[in-house]
Each structure stands twice: as structure tokens, then as C-alpha cells.
Design brief:
Elements lengths: L6 E3 L1 H12 L5 E6 L6 H12 L4 E3 L9 H7 L13 H12 L1 H6 L6 E7 L4 E9 L5 E5 L10 H6 L3 E5 L3 H14 L4 H9 L1 H10 L7 E5 L2
Parallel strand pairs: 1-8, 2-6, 2-7, 3-6, 7-8
Antiparallel strand pairs: 4-5
Helix pairs in contact: 1-2, 7-8
């Protein structure tokens, strides 16, 4: 697979692209992906904040983290954040329900959808935390594995209208990632070990998916 071209764009340019996606008022899904620490959550939150609640809502993939107790039972807790430590099937099912929401509401089969969220202060997912209303045209979703070409993740790509792969410099990404780990309670040594250990293994897998994105971008502000 060829190496994708990285485009340098400002936040304002990306905001306009998101506005254009939502302009016709139909239900659209915008996905943001990239390696751990690439700035997905930050950009997604900025976009949704600027677009406003009448236009957009954020539904992160991280709400589908398996609970720590389940990861311990499966022997996967040390690899938390890898693609098989999420309920990928549940995420795909939610995306499908989001895409079909308006039609299902009209048929009397659905209403407001309540999506889960991941609480970093708890390191656990919390269910039914984000209301997705049928009249909201744009759903922004962000997560590591939106472009992974293996089951069940490849079905997620089919349900997303446009996917942006965030590609900051590796130095910048690691700096952001280490700082995030420290912010949520890890020591500088633990933060660096995690960032260069299991997170790096995930980052290398995620980087291999960039060519499937509609846009590979480095945000300049």
C-alpha cells in the first residue's frame, strides 16, 4: 500500500470541511483517527464545540473499551488499548443505529440514542452517557481503529462518510501522549514506559491504516 500524502491544514479549514459535510442536513458521520496521542479527542471536541449542538454531537469509540474486570478475565489488561480490548461489534452496531436513526424514528422503532463514554479519571467506560438526537445532522466519532481492515472494524469504515487520519510529527505525538498519561496520574517514568511500550505497538498498527483515509492531515493550529 502506498504512503499517503500528508496535507497541512488549519483548524478553520477543517471546520469548513466539517460544515460542508453537514450542510445538506442529512445524517452524516465524520470519523477522526490516528495513533495514540495524535490529537483526535482535542480536534473532535473543538469541531463539535464550534459547530454547536444543533449541528453536531461527539460519539467517541473509546466508550467501547472493555471493562477492566473483563480485560483481567481475558488476560488482556496489560494490552489495554489494543484493538481486541474493545467491543468492536458493539461500536459497529451503534454506528449502524446512528446512520439509520431518522428512518427508525419515523417508523416508530427508535428515539434518542444514548452512547457510552470513556472516563479517563476512572479508566472505565460509562454507558448511556451521550444523547444523540435524530435531528442532529452530524455525528463526529473518533478512535484508533476506524480504518483497521479486520473484523469487525472494517464494517465501521463502511458506516462513516468521511475519515480523517491525524498525522502530527512523531516527536509531537509522543510529547502529547506522555503528557496525557501524566495528567491522569502516571509518573513520568510510567508515562514514558507506556507510551513507548504497548501504545507504540498500537501506533504502528494504526499507522498502517492511514492509506484508507479520505484525508491525512497535520493540523497547524
Amino acid at each position: 500500500m502506498s504512503t499517503p500524502t500528508v496535507e497541512t491544514m488549519t483548524f478553520t479549514q477543517l471546520l469548513r470541511r466539517a460544515q460542508a459535510l453537514a450542510a445538506d442536513g442529512r445524517r452524516r458521520v465524520l470519523g477522526l483517527t490516528g495513533a495514540p496521542g495524535a490529537g483526535k479527542s482535542t480536534l473532535a471536541e473543538r469541531l463539535v464545540d464550534r459547530l454547536g449542538p444543533q449541528t453536531a454531537v461527539l460519539v467517541p469509540m473509546d466508550g467501547f473499551h472493555l471493562a477492566d474486570a473483563v480485560l483481567h478475565d481475558l488476560g488482556r489488561h496489560a494490552r489495554k488499548g489494543a484493538h481486541d480490548t474493545f467491543d468492536g461489534h458493539g461500536y459497529v452496531a451503534l454506528l449502524r443505529r446512528i446512520r439509520e436513526q431518522r428512518e427508525r424514528v419515523e417508523a416508530g422503532d427508535d428515539d434518542i440514542i444514548y452512547a457510552p463514554v470513556f472516563r479517563r479519571d476512572l479508566e472505565e467506560p460509562v454507558g448511556s452517557a451521550i444523547p444523540v438526537r435524530p435531528e442532529t445532522p452530524l455525528v463526529v466519532t473518533e478512535g484508533n481503529y476506524l480504518l483497521l481492515d479486520r473484523s469487525p472494524w472494517q464494517r465501521a469504515r463502511d458506516l462513516i462518510d468521511e475519515v480523517w487520519f491525524l498525522a502530527p510529527s512523531e516527536e509531537q505525538r509522543l510529547e502529547w501522549l506522555i503528557a496525557r498519561h501524566e495528567r491522569f496520574g502516571r509518573s513520568p517514568e510510567e508515562a514514558r514506559e507506556r507510551s513507548l511500550g504497548s501504545d507504540q505497538a498500537n501506533a504502528e498498527l494504526i499507522a498502517s491504516t492511514a492509506a484508507r483515509a479520505d484525508l491525512v492531515v497535520r493540523v497547524t493550529d
